Structure formats: structure tokens, C-alpha cells
Amino acid sequence: MKDVKGLVVTGFGINCEEEMAAANRLAGAKADIVHLSEVFNERTSIHDYDILNFPGGFSFGDDLGSAKVLGNKFRFKRMASGKLFLDELKKFLNEGKYMIGVCNGFQALVKMGFLPNASGNFEQEATITHNSSGKFEDRWVTCCVNPDSKTPFIKDIITLDMPVRHGEGKLIFKDEATRQIIIDKNLNCMSYAGKNGQPTTEYPQNPNGSELNCAGLCDPSGQVFGLMPHPEAFLSVYNHPNWGKKKRQNPNMSDEGDGLKIFKNIVNHIKENS
Amino acid sequence: MQSTNINHIQLLLKPNVVDVAGQRVCESAQKYLQLNTGKVKSGKIFSVLYDLSSDQISQFSNESLRDPIIHDAYINMLFNDSAYQSYILISKLPGVTDDEGVSAQKALCDLLNIPFDFSAQWIFTQDIYYIENKLSDKQLAQLGEELLGNPLINHFEYGTFDGKIKYIPTVHIESDTTIKTIDIFVDEARLEKLSKELLLALDLKEMAAIQAYFKNESTIAGRKEAGLPELPTDCEMEILAQTWSEHCKHKEFNAIISYKDMETGEEKTIDSLFKTYIYKSTKIIQDRLKEKGNNWLLKIFSDNAGVVRIDDDRVFIWKVETHNSPSALDPYGGALTGIVGVNRDPLGTGIGGGKLLFNTNVLCFGSPYYEGKLLPGQLHPRQIMTGVVKGIEDGGNKSGIPTVNGSVIFDDRFRGKPLVFCGTGAVMQNQYAGVNSWEKPIAAGDRIVMAGGRVGKDGIHGATFSSLEIDEHSPRSAVQIGSPITQKNMSDFMEQAVKLGLIKCSTDNGAGGLSSSIGELATISGGAKIQLDKVPLKYSGLKAWEIFVSESQERMSFVVKPDLIKNLFKMAADFEVELTDIGQFTNSGFLDVRWEDKSIAYLDLEFLHDGVPKKYMEAEWKKPAVREPKLKNNLDYNDILLKLLGSLNICSRESIIRRYDHEVKGKSVIKPLMGVDGFAPQDAAIMRLGFDSYAGIAVSNGILPKFGDIDAYQMSAGSFDEAVRSIIAVGGKLPDPDDADNNFWSVNDNFCVPDSAYNPKSNPDGKYKLAQLVRMNEALFDMSTFFNIPMTSGKDSMKNDFIKEGVKISVPPTILYSMVAKIKDIRKTLTAEFKQTGDLIYLIGKTYDELGGSDFYKLFNEIGANVPVVRKEDAKRIYYKMMEANTRSLLVSAHDLSDGGLAVALAESAFGSELGVSIELPNNGLSINANLFSESHSRFIVSVNPDDKDKFEQLFGNDAELIGKVNESYKVQISKAGKVLIDLDNDVLLNAWRSGLVF
């Protein structure tokens, strides 16, 4: 079995790089946190890695809309040698490798056309904008997984608690046709759920009013996965707001947080298929 | 590259997309201003002053700005529709931070693949709101100034839209930038006048001391040699005024005070409150620790923040500051700058570059429901609250620093000036390349490098700036708006640069700007020489002294070895951080400021820092005349509990807390709200320090201004106890000089008091106010030395009065203790909510008839006399038992008793679970009122597994009383001697508690 390597990009207002790297490491991968300027200056190559992590944050202060400036940087940036960074990202996927974007990283992947990418031509098919509540909110939500989704990131997960921490998390699709393709191809792989574990439109269980109650998307290949909630903020059971009661009921509970499952899934998937 | 050709790009939401921002304006206008706007459509306008072809403009609009899914774009033909009869256009005033404009400029550079130009802003953003109903100009002005913007930072246009905008906030300054001398060789009356005219805020004694320095023969000789005139330059007077300001030299905390206790007749002289109480208490504790060979107190009251040792590899840095006056003027900018400003304190401590771990905020406001009159320039408390909260939100969230602990206090005496306390904790490596990270070595020859934002007129003379001098193109100087993203880039850069040993040490450019930061660092090497002409500016036209004292944000100064300059600058370019080499440290004994080859300031460092004359002040303590009220019998306790839970000082802070990211970094263990549905409030925050171990910290605060009206000593002692017991409640341990495990505590004390300098006309009760301050300090000393809990840093804010039209609104004397304690294993911490049916509920600690100052009395508009008294020996015994019980895993939950007493604490603990409680009040001779609502200190309610009953009771003895049980009723039921006093469903309680503060 090979060593799995995760690259966690940072800089320009990205701020969840530390816990993202910890998630990769606790899942059994090696992880490097690298400033994007290192990548653009070609002192680090994304092709030396198996997983490309786009962490959460407030890139460029979310001015011009969440992750808009960052997404554009990814689209237009010419690297030191003149190569278009966007072409390198496409090449990375062509080699069968994996990308995960959380929160601001997810917003960037959506705005640069990598998610849901139902058409396969990397054009923007959806956007993520202001919550229906009109405000930033930090709260824990329960997400349920689309059982027909084929992305390895969420294998064997039925529901998962995670915190959301965003003011712009409402997913809107380009048009009815796009929406239908997403449903048909099961690209809406994760939804906000009520107490019964089923998708819900109810606020605050659905914290932002997303279309299809969507919390996360994958691309048709399953290699690219993004979500608004933060699995990397639930690496330990002691992150959960109700850990006290859980522990009283089960003093011998595992210390591991459920958010780690997503990262273990992908690391194990790469190991098994190498 | 600025062009005179202006292109406007307007973005509007497509008609089928819900306009959340527009809806919010419509709702808030109705709710807060009773204005019926009808439908509101929001839009954003980018004014681009850059030479671009029309193809490039549309490409920029389409690719970089517009979101094709939701936006329609209008280029140079702005949207106009007769369905909207009114509009408001909101621009920033010249020189006000416009981060969106800067980001748009960066996006344009990315699109054109050209490097970013720091030197000029050429994209400006404006917000436009189209309003369906025809509103009068007066109504539109109100909407703009009270809801959407602030006239101190915004320009408004309103009326009926004609499709054009005229206003662009470019900065033009016509000013005389030559260096002037100030004639201070004048008589006393003119000296005083001079201080006023130049806004120096120096008194006659201080002006006379400066005059004496410049008349001194050796000064004259030295200046002649340095090529300076005998009279001081404008730059020198400004440096002295900054350095000798109350803010920098804490003149009142260092004054000689004669204190008279009118009750006992006792008189004493206190030579410096700071040295006598604050510094001395910490020194005593440090000596006790050292005596046991145990030294986790690494740095106290020097540098930008205090430093304590976590373990062999890491140190902890912690600073809490206030930002009251700026928040009164511009609540959003004031609070934002408060947060990003205090971030720079730990960042600039020692070598610097520590990793910022968390923020805290404690806020004191007038009631948001205040219906009284407002004075000119006074904002409504609601507007202050919403602005401040938004500032804290953006300051923390956009920087990726979790806001984990806080408090909000309401009292209408805070309606003139709010109190905005902002804190930041950080973790730094113990050493960088073999050098102790918390030390600040500087040698002659080291270079001075300025980093981060550019310099403008921001913050020059702060609030004293006269509005008469402002025309429509003068940059704003009274208020500043921080730029979290600029600072985030800088802190990312620092973190890497210190690891590579490229920065020798660093400091923050905060209050007083370069003058203060370099002036202070210069004392280490013994001098500094600064080339002021090298400092990069936001716009031209600043006078030299303005550049030196400007408080422009997001700036740090680095001390760099000359041979490392090249590498440091190369690295900064990668992080998009602007650096400038502005001079060097020397050992000349002088602060030497140059403009090109001309000397413009040359001041003896010893005089600059130690030349300020001592102040003398008078204090007189007289017990206030207070009495216990007589309340009627047969109170309806259900009704009272619901009223208490819904009252402003007790109700849920959820609508504030959820706007702050308290999870980022993935290390938060006890967050402000916990439990099944996230409703249960907690006593202190717990954070892990890393992902490789379970070591962590607890963060708490204590602030009880309500008790100060009865006794300032007990107010201060009680606040201290509140912060300590909050940490004990979550499973913390008191410090022990014998414990070699670096079981540190680190406290910031923040005093915020009204003007306490006696003046027969303007401040007739000044002596009493100063006596209150003395007593607050005495309590600090007594409590900290008793518990061995040291102050490591702190701050005082002395003039929290709002004066207009002969009316003075003064804050009540307030002290905030912000505490951090090390936690060995976060898995052994405790949350406040009940967890399991059948668990036993105990009341720990003794309740007294202490309803004075309580929230219960406040319901009846009474204060009372029996203020809660801290009995520190009892407190310590109880805390040691709590520690022991937790070590032996005998506790399931713990919650401290504070505002609202036992009844409120029980309800709060019930909120976290889908469970209920039945309680029988103890038969202790106290009234029902005292049993339910007394706010006696050092008490907890805990729940205990019935299997542990014997062990628990054996440990606590008389210090714990079994009062009830957790059950499945989903109700809070409290009775005494069989008589039911309270019987309410959790939902009813929860609804009252969650409805008190919603916005």
C-alpha cells in the first residue's frame, strides 16, 4: 500500500488549513500545508499529491461574493512558467486524483465550475450566496447522505453531525435543466436533515435555504467533493456540542469525531485502489 | 495609473433571485424606524478609475465581478425603474477603508495578469438601495444614517434616482507640509492655550516640564549640533503629547493619591495604584513561584502582552483591551478595529508571530429598547449594539480566529459610551532558532521595517478632531475601519518569517503609531533613527508629524538584522505583504527622526519616557446610603422566574453568539452554547491547544458593575470570584506554587471608570469616584494574592463620560477580569447542562441573604443594600473540593450561580437536556426570595450519578446540600416545605429566555 499524500492550500484569507491538515493526518495520509504563492511559483507541484484540499476561510474577505476572487484566481492565474493553473487542476483530475472543498473551498469549486460540473466542461452551473436568514451563523446541523451517490468520500455514512459557519451557504442552480441533471446523476450527495434523518427545508435544521436542501455536491466522476458544513471541525468527539450527555450515557465512547470518516474514506479508497 | 475616465459597473440580483439584503432593509426599517419602504432592491456599484477599453470593462464585469447565476450587470447605464420612487446611495468618505474596492482591484490584476499595485486605490464601491415607496428626504436620511450607514464614514445621496452618480471618494489634500517650530517659551496662560489649540491634551505642569527641557543648556547644545532649532518642532511636540498621553503613560494609575475613608477616618497616601496593587500582587506571586523553583510567569506588564509557559515547547500570550470611544462614534469600525487591534498585541509580543488561538469580547451597552432622548452625536444603543456585534463578527470570522467567550451587560449608564472589551490569546513556540521567543533583543544597527497597511490620516488625534475642519474631500481621521484580510496576510507571513529566523523581534503599531512603537523599542537598544520620508502613504499631502503619529491599522514594525533584509522582503512579496525599511536602531540615547537629510525631531529618550511629571489626586470614601427594600408577600414565582429569564441581563445571547464563529481551528471543546439543541449556556470556554494531545485551556470573564453602586470593593472581589469559579465549574484547577507542571493562570485586568479627577464644577463627586477605583484595586490585590492568580497584563480607560449640551452620561465604575487557566486534559472538563434522569442535584456553597444589586431586585426597581460578599477562605475550600470531585469523576455537570441566583441556574442547566428537575429548597432560615434569587458568590449546582452519592457527600460534607433530582418531566419544579413555588414547562422557560434579545 502506498503513502497517501494530501496537499492543503492556504493563503489570502483561507483559515481552516490547520484542522484540514490534521484531518488528513489522522485519517492516515501525509499532509503539507502550502501557501498558494508556492504553488503558483511552482516551488510545489500539485501533481506530487493524491488529495487536493481547499479549506474554509474568508479568502479576500469574501469581497465581491464568497470565494469569488479566489475562484477567479484559480481560473486566470498563470504560473511562473506561463502555464495556466486551471489546466494543472484539470490534469490532476485526469490522473484520477481527488479534490475536497469545505465551505469557502466548496464555494470556490462551485464558482470555478468544478462542482457540480454535470456537463463536464467546467462551466459555472450553480452558485452559493447569502443565507435566507440574511446573517452569518455558527450552528451544528445533521446531514444525510444520498445513498445513490457514488463518491467515495461519503461511503457508508448515513447521517453526520457537523458545524456550519457561514453567511453565504445557499446553493442556487443555474436553471431547471441543471437541477434535473443533478438529481438524475445523484450529484446532490449530501442534504441538511431534520431530527428524523430525512432532508428538510426547515430552518434552522436547514440553515441557509439551499435548493434541494443541498449541503454538499460531487462531480459525476465522484473525484471532486465539496460541502458547506465542516467535517474537519469534528475530528474529536469533544468537538460535539452534546459530548457531555453522550459521555454520561457511554463512559467508554470512542474519542474519534464522526467528521474524520470522510477523510478516512478517501484515504482508504486511494490506498485500496493503488 | 489612476484615470480621469470613470467607468461604473453595477450588479443587481436577477428578478427571480430573492434579495435577502433588500428584505432585511425593509423589515428593519419597519421594526426600528417605523418606516414603510415597500419593496427594497439592493445593488452594488463599482467605480473604476483605471484606463480600460470598453472590451476590458465588460470582460472585468463578466468574469471578475458578476456571478452569472444570480447577477445582472449594468455598465455605465445604471438601473432605473419608475416602480421605485426613492433611492439611497451610500459611499464611503475619502480615506475610509474600502476592502471590497481593494479586492476588486486585486481581481482585475488577476484578470490582466499584472502585479498588484499597493500605491493607489482606483476602484471604489458604493451600495445602492431602490425603494418602492416615496419617502421624504428626512426619512431617507434617517434610514441612511441610523440603519444603513454612519455620517462619520459615509456619504449619502438620496431622493428620486436620475440614473447618475456624481460622488467618488478620492482623497485630495491641500496642506502645508513644511516643518514648523512651536514657540513654547511663553507664559503659563499661553502654554495652556497652546496645548488646547494643538490638541495635545497636556496640562500646565506637563507643558512646563517640556518648556524646561528645551530651555536646558545641554539640550540647547545638543540640538545645535544635530542641526535643530532651540524651539521644538511640531513633530517633537506631537511625539511628546503621544508618549505622555493617558493612554500610553497611565498617568492616573501612576498618580500619588491621598485617600480618606470617611467611615473610619483612616487616611493613606498611595504612590501609584498600578505599582501598589496590580504590579505588586503579581510580583508577590512570582516570588512565591520562584521560591518553589517553579516559574511559569515569564513576562508580566512589559511588552504588548503577558507571557506564561505552557510546557517545554510552548508559551501562552494573552491580552485584553478596550475600544470604547471609537465604538461610540462608529460602532462597527470601532469594534472591528478593537478586535484586529488586540490581535496584534500577542502577534507583536517578544519575537512575535505567535499563532492566534481565540478571541473574547465583553460588551456593555444601554438598553436596545431605550426610549429616552438622544443627545446630538449620540447613537441609539440598538445601533451601537448591532454595529459593535457586526464588528466583532467580522474581526474574528474573517481572520479565522474563534470567538469563544464573552459577556454582554446592559445598563442605561452605558448609553453614552459603550464599553467594548476585546481579547486575544495566542500560542507561540518556546524558542525560534535557539532564542527565547518572548524576549525582545535589539542592538544598534538593527533595521526598522514597517509591514502591512499604508499610512493615512487615520486616528490622528482620534475623537478630538473637529468636524469644522472637514470638507467633503478630507480623509476621515477620527474613525478607522480595520481590514481583517490585510492583517490575515500579514499574520500568515509573520508566522513563517519568525520560524525561519528572519525577524529578530516585532511590535504592534497601535495607539500613537510609529511614534509610540519605535519610541518604545528604542529604549531597548538606546536610540533609533527613522527616515520618515520612506514611509509608504495611502495618499500624498500628509505632514511629517502626521505620518509619525498616525494610527492607520494593520501595521507592525519588525526589527531585522541588516543581512536578512533581502530574504525577508522576498518572502513578503509571496504573501502580498508590503514591507518598507524605514531606519535603524542606534545607541545614541536619542529618538532621531529625519525627513530626507533634514532632522525634524531629536529627543532625549530618558526625558521622553521618564520626564512626565507625577499627578496628584484626591479620593474620599463614604459608604453610599442604601437600604433593603420591603417587597410584598405572596409573590408569583412562576411569573418572576419568567420575567428574570427574559430580562436583558439574563436572557439568551444566542442571537449574538451564533454570529461569531466559535469553531474555526477545530479546537473548541466547551463552546458558549451546548447540549442537545445547543441552548445551554456555559460558564467558561475550553479549547484544545493542538491535535496531538488533550492539553488545553479554560477561558472565563468576571464583570459585575451592578454591585458597584453599593460597594466597589465587593464589586471587584465578586467579579474576580466569578471568573475563578467559572473556570472551576468547567473543571479547572487553582494554581499551586508547589506544582511543577506549569499549571498556569493568566489574567488581564481592565478598568473602565468615569472621570475620577475631582473638579468642584465639572466633577464634584470626583473624590468618591476615585475612592471607588482605589477600593477596586484593593480587592484585586487581596483576591489575586490569596489565590495566587496573577495579573499578567491589563489596561485602564479613565474617562468614560459622554458630555453634550451640559448633560453628562457616565459609565458605572467597571472592572473586567479576563482569565485563562491551563487544563491538563480537556476530556476531564465539565459542561453545565443536566444529562441523565435520576442524577442527583446538589447546591454547593452557602447562600446568604444577599439580594443587594441583584437582578431580582431590579425587577422591582430596587438596588438594596446587602451586596454579595466574597468569603475567600470558604471559596478556596469549596474550589478544592470541586477539583477533587472532578479528579475522581464524581461530577456529571456543574454550573456556577450568578445573575438571577439558584432559580435561573437550574433553568439554564435544564435547557441543555430534554429533561426536567424537581427541587426542594433547603430549610436554612433564609427567605424564599433569598433562596431562589440571592446572588451570593462561590456557589455551584452540580449533578451527580446516584452511584456516587456516598463518595460525593463524604467529600463535600456541609458544603453541599442535596436539593433534588433530574427527571423526565421536561419541567422545572421548585418547592419549599411541600409548597410548590415554581412549576413550569421547559418550553415555556426556554421561550421566555430566548425572546429577550432578538435582532
Short description:
The complex is a heterodimer of chains A (274) and B (999). Chain A has 274 residues and is of the alpha/beta class. Chain A has helices at 17-26, 36-40, 68-76, 85-94, 104-111, 176-184, 243-249, 260-272, and strands at residues 5-10, 30-35, 51-54, 98-102, 126-130, 137-145, 159-166, 168-173, 190-193, 214-218, 224-227.
Write the layout of secondary structure elements.
The complex is a heterodimer of chains A (274) and B (999).
Chain A: E1 5-10, H1 17-26, E2 30-35, H2 36-40, E3 51-54, H3 68-76, H4 85-94, E4 98-102, H5 104-111, E5 126-130, E6 137-145, E7 159-166, E8 168-173, H6 176-184, E9 190-193, E10 214-218, E11 224-227, H7 243-249, H8 260-272
Helix pairs in contact in A: 3-5
Chain B: E1 2-13, H1 20-33, E2 40-50, H2 54-65, E3 71-75, E4 86-92, H3 99-112, E5 123-131, H4 137-148, E6 154-159, H5 188-197, H6 204-215, H7 217-226, H8 234-243, H9 246-249, E7 256-261, E8 267-271, H10 273-291, E9 297-299, E10 306-309, E11 314-322, H11 324-329, H12 331-347, E12 355-365, H13 381-397, E13 403-410, E14 419-429, E15 431-432, E16 435-436, E17 447-452, H14 484-499, E18 505-508, H15 513-525, E19 528-531, H16 544-549, E20 555-560, H17 565-574, E21 579-585, E22 590-595, E23 598-604, H18 605-610, E24 616-621, H19 637-646, H20 654-657, E25 668-670, E26 673-674, E27 680-681, E28 685-688, E29 696-702, H21 712-729, E30 745-752, H22 766-787, E31 791-797, E32 801-804, E33 807-810, E34 814-823, E35 840-844, H23 855-859, H24 872-887, E36 893-896, H25 901-911, E37 916-920, H26 928-933, E38 940-944, H27 949-956, E39 960-967, E40 971-976, E41 979-985, H28 986-994
Parallel strand pairs in B: 7-24, 12-13, 19-22, 30-31, 37-40
Antiparallel strand pairs in B: 1-2, 1-3, 2-5, 4-5, 4-6, 7-8, 9-10, 10-11, 11-14, 12-14, 15-16, 17-20, 17-21, 18-20, 19-21, 22-23, 25-28, 26-27, 28-29, 29-34, 30-34, 32-33, 35-38, 35-39, 36-38, 37-39, 40-41
Helix pairs in contact in B: 1-4, 2-3, 10-22, 12-13, 19-28, 21-22, 21-24
